[in-house]
Design brief:
heterodimer; A: mainly alpha; globular; B: 268 residues; three-stranded mixed sheet; two-stranded antiparallel sheet
Chain lengths: 201, 268
């Protein structure tokens, strides 16, 4: 109890940091309210700096310039380009990854690879009408952009860690958070950029 | 009454047929079912069971729930849900309807809390008393205006916590509630998402839970919806009636102030 009062006093003293406190308040409520389920352990409630700054920014008046710079730098540093310099795989496997919505949920089998669930948010191939609209349409992604090295490099970076370009985007950091492995990312690259892929038909 | 109930049952069976979504139905995927159901909603089965549970003497103490106070006085349920969550002096906590039911069923009727929580969500033949009671009591606020006054400091604190939870990004996918519900007019695959920061959407969302979910053949409550959202956020399990759950319900309820209750409703 005394500890709590002491904590409250500290928070009052540090009131200029009110925004950070609001995420701290959320974290404390979650600690009391959640329990481990399947592969989703309590450690997942702990935010990294990007998550903390983006949450605080969204709950207030947006990001400060300083926070924006920090997020972009940290996430740019987290991008790994493919070790063998090969950016491409198989668009058919990429399509399956784009369709698959499971992976890393408490109800999912941790032994099975996660999907990218791209269609939850993006339009991709014209033939797939069940697409979401949270992200921009990627219809004809490669056809519109070609596959010059800058486009290839940019696309890899956005898939690997979209927050290296768009600070607080809703898009998960598929590579740096270990949601998709390097080969899966190559396959999705092909789905987006291969002229044979349905995305570019 | 019997005949009407039978109609509801047969419509419920039809609802279990494969759910086909076409692009032309994007705006309201349950429109076809609404037409099929007419004024009937299989949720009535839960409401009726809940009404029985409300009146019956039950639990180790063999008494009805009629002394339970939902904020408008002992046993008053008409319009009570439209003013919840709220602070309750007897527990010293802010409670939503679902956590209040757990409180009353344990203190008044003597039910074991843990046992109740284990069967909080129904599944086929395993019926949940909490769900049925929730459906019935929410139904007693149909047509009432949502009016959360945020008078008690604990109510204000719950709202603030709920707001910060709404924006709290975490887990391998960096998701928060706001990832899907921060803007209106968006959808996941073909499912429209209510933007819970915008009045019209927030009112629609809050006033239509619980709902009979056509795709699951079950009635689902608002706490079920929240817990399942967190599962999809790749986060651990949200505790039923927990401080975070109540805070989020409070945030949603306040954003829905002025809306007219229309639940139990029908959901995809």
């Amino acid at each position: 109890m005394n500890k709590k009062i002491f904590g409250a006093l500290i928070i009052l003293v540090l009131s200029p940091l009110a925004v950070a406190d609001s995420t701290q308040q959320a974290f404390e409520a979650m600690q009391q309210s959640f329990s481990k389920a399947g592969q989703a352990g309590m450690e997942r409630l702990q935010q990294d700096e990007t998550q903390r700054l983006c949450s605080a920014g969204a709950a207030s008046n947006g990001l400060t310039d300083d926070a924006l710079a920090k997020i972009l730098a940290a996430n740019e540093a987290a991008v790994k380009l493919p070790a063998d310099g090969n950016y491409f795989g198989d668009w058919k496997r990429g399509q399956a990854i784009a369709q698959l919505g499971t992976g890393l949920q408490s109800s999912d089998d941790p032994a099975k690879p996660a999907g990218g669930n791209c269609y939850a948010c993006h339009q991709m191939a014209e033939s797939e009408i069940a697409y979401g609209t949270i992200g921009p349409s990627l219809l004809h992604y490669g056809k519109l952009r070609g596959n010059s090295q800058p486009i290839v490099d940019y696309t890899w970076r956005v898939l690997y860690n979209a927050k290296s370009y768009f600070a607080c985007t809703h898009m998960p950091r598929f590579g740096s958070q270990g949601i998709l492995d390097e080969q899966q990312l190559r396959d999705v690259m092909s789905y987006l950029l291969d002229p044979e892929s349905p995305v570019n038909q | 009454m019997k005949q009407r109930l039978w109609r509801v049952v047969s419509v419920a069976v039809m609802a279990c047929m494969p759910f086909v979504v076409g692009a032309q139905q994007q705006e309201d995927p349950v429109a076809e079912y609404r037409e099929l159901f007419g004024e009937d909603n299989p949720a009535e089965l839960w409401e009726q069971r809940g009404e029985g549970l409300w009146r019956e003497a039950r639990g180790p103490k063999n008494v009805p729930l009629s002394s339970c106070d939902f904020g408008l006085g002992a046993g008053v349920i008409a319009g009570a849900y439209a003013q919840m969550p709220r602070y309750f002096a007897d527990t010293g906590r802010v409670e939503d309807l679902e956590s209040r039911l757990v409180t009353c069923m344990s203190t008044i009727q003597g039910f074991d809390r843990e046992t109740m929580l284990r069967s909080r969500f129904g599944d086929g033949d395993k019926k949940s008393d909490l769900e049925a009671l929730t459906a019935y009591i929410v139904g007693q606020s149909r047509g009432h205006t949502v009016e959360i006054k945020l008078q008690h400091p604990a109510e204000k604190a719950a709202y603030e916590t709920g707001k910060s939870l709404f924006f709290y990004r975490a887990g391998p996918h960096d998701f928060s509630c706001a990832s899907c519900h921060g803007e209106s007019g968006k959808r996941i695959r073909l499912q429209s998402l209510p933007g819970l920061l915008e009045k019209k959407d927030a009112q629609f969302a809050f006033t239509t839970w619980p709902g009979y979910r056509v795709s699951q053949g079950e009635l689902r409550t608002l706490e079920w919806r929240l817990a399942d959202c967190f599962r999809q956020q790749r986060l651990p399990q949200l505790g039923y009636g927990s401080p975070a759950a109540v805070a989020l319900v409070m945030f949603m309820a306040v954003n829905a102030n002025g809306g007219k209750m229309d639940a139990p409703n029908l959901k995809r």
